[in-house]
Amino acid sequence: MPEQNPQARILELTNRLNYLNYQYYQNSVSEVSDYEFDQMLKELQELEEAHPQYRSDNSPTQRVGGTITKNFPTVKHKYPMLSLGNTYSEAEVREFDKRVRKVTGDEVEYVCELKFDGVALSLTYTNGALSLGVTRGDGTRGDDITPNVRTIRTIPLHLHGEDVPAEVEVRGEVFMPFNVFEELNKEREEIGEALMANPRNATSGTLKLQDSKEVARRRLSMFAYGLLSTPTLFDSHSQSLEALQRWGLNVSPTWRVCQNIDQVLDFIHEWETKRFELPIATDGIVVKVNSYAQQEELGYTAKSPRWAMAYKYKAMEAVTELLEIEYNVGRTGAVTPVAIMKPVLLAGTTVKRASLHNANEIERLGLMLHDQVMVEKGGEIIPKVTAVKTELRPENAEPIVYPTTCPACNTPLIRTEGEANHYCPNEKGCPPQVKGKLEHFISRKAMNIMSLGEGKIELLAERGLVTSPEHLYDLTYDTLFGLEKVYQDEETGKTRTVKFQKKTVDNILSAIEKSKEVPFDRVLFALGIRFVGATVAQKLAQHFRNIDALRAASEEELIAVPEIGGRIAASVREYFQDLAHVHVVERLKEHGLLLDLGELEVVAPQSNKLEGLTFVVSGVFSGYSRDALQETIAAHGGKVVSSISKKLSFLVAGDKMGPSKLEKATALGVKIVSEEEFNQMIS
Ligand SMILES: NC(=O)c1ccc[n+]([C@@H]2O[C@H](COP(=O)([O-])OP(=O)(O)OC[C@H]3O[C@@H](n4cnc5c(N)ncnc54)[C@H](O)[C@@H]3O)[C@@H](O)[C@H]2O)c1
Ligand SMILES: [Zn+2]
């Protein structure tokens, strides 16, 4: 890098780091690796020390990187929530020890803890009961996210013990375990949603959700690592950790008291690889001076305590050759590129495949075939390509030509504006999509016909016996019995036989029969409409109550449902505009699948003012939820139907009613009443 004028470089780094902080804390996005971020911060720190006159007031070296949001009440912290000084070098850990001993003298104990890679949280317990949960925010003020915090199971709502003080603050790290992270991402992939990049960003995004029920579903957890109270209750940090554990908080048992810096370094070495056995992400070790009296003597900088330091492990990386790109087609037709590399040893396992997410990622990396690439393993199962070693680019490097047609069926791919993925539109004829959709339909959370798993549904699809869900319900004993296929694993050469014997066939047929009892929301989820995951399906089912009402809903009406956005609405509309889908739904209905929620709950009859009248309800209402309005009609003796016909007595029209409905009702001469007029009818 050419020698740059320090003032300009300071300004450049300040702006860049402030921007990256904003992305990281506000949007839960990492544009560069933590290591790169920390190297830039270090460079800035050193430049500012050499040229203090150029340091800006908003320098990221002087402040905690986060911010508060407008979505939650703001709370001022009783004790500021600071950051930690960090290093990637053992020599600097020894220097830290020297600085400490200069102040405290040689009698100093350290506590080593794992540095959990999540989001810091402050909890206040008043008379033993959880009263407040706040994010770090800008260090001085944070977001009050108490309702979300209450859903985290490892955070007790009450503390237990004789010595729990009247008010105490607990600090801890909220995180998302790997298995939860992977499960959620799998769900997202299935419904065509963008994947979450890592468990830390997923945690931070989850804590900021407005819907606590969704937070609860994401199964976050927390480890407690700090205790604050006035007056202080104990003499040392280790005593506080013991107390936290006694009172019922979740303290990771991995902490250790060390008598000197060599023992600290032993701890660091010990966990360097052992940390990969843990079910959660960690990115280093936190070293803290144990005695509170000594901590006080050491004090704080503007941004972090002088009595603690984080040693961070560099991510496990390796350099290897990119051999080719494989393009996988998923259930929704989304095409995802996977890097196939020359096998290389990384964090104890041989790696040869790495995720590349989408075409943008290939472009961002500037990747070419036969490049030497850097692969990183952060603890997630599938490693990532993080950079290209352009200086090692071989002569035979070839540009990557992203396919324009589907690798499985040759149909030209499409890419919707604003979306990262390419899609194969050949939904009905593209083998991986057909197979993927069927697998989704029979999956546990959908129709739960798991006796067709493990290659059986694949075989039925291949033989052309089942290529769409409704075909399942035409299967008979005679068609299934005796089917057989031997599969061979391409890599290991091992063979596996899929065979339909009597018992298997009986199980399959009874599971198919039983699936007719699966409730409407799960059937809706099973249909595999893009962006309609299990939760969205539940919301739609509750709101519209039956498939015909959902099918008839306009985009405006869909968006009016709480938590249904434009993207989901458009996808639902698109699904039902395809007559082939309508046909599938009709056939499933004929086979007796539950495509409605059944009768409305019977509300005590209130009058017979609406007796003999039929109603269609459409749009959004100010005084009723849609369910409540339908129940009210029933309670007054009226009948709610789903489609507009000549015989219909009234269309009750709310806001945002679809124009097509209005048109149809007008054309057929159906009476249209407003919410107000309806209220007059029953008053
Ligand atoms: N990649 C990016 O774009 C980007 C952007 C901004 C920040 N970052 C990363 O975030 C870091 C700055 O974040 P930070 O200020 O939260 O610092 P930090 O994450 O390095 O350290 C402080 C935090 O560690 C956590 N922690 C985990 N275990 C702990 C334990 N046992 N004891 C005490 N604390 C524990 C706490 O949440 C605490 O707030 C940067 O150094 C960088 O690595 C990355
Ligand atoms: Zn295809």
Automatic annotation (TrEMBL):
One of its GO terms (biological process) is DNA replication. Zn(2+) binds at C406, C409, C424, C430. Signal peptide: none annotated. Residues 605-683 form the BRCT domain. Residues 55-68 have a biased composition (Polar residues). Its EC number is 6.5.1.2. GO terms for cellular component: cytosol. NAD(+) binds at D34, Y35, E36, F37, D38, S83, L84, E113, R136, E173, K288, K312. GO terms for molecular function: DNA ligase (NAD+) activity; metal ion binding. Its cofactor is Mg(2+); Mn(2+). This is DNA ligase. It comes from Rufibacter quisquiliarum. The lineage of its organism: Bacteria, Pseudomonadati, Bacteroidota, Cytophagia, Cytophagales.
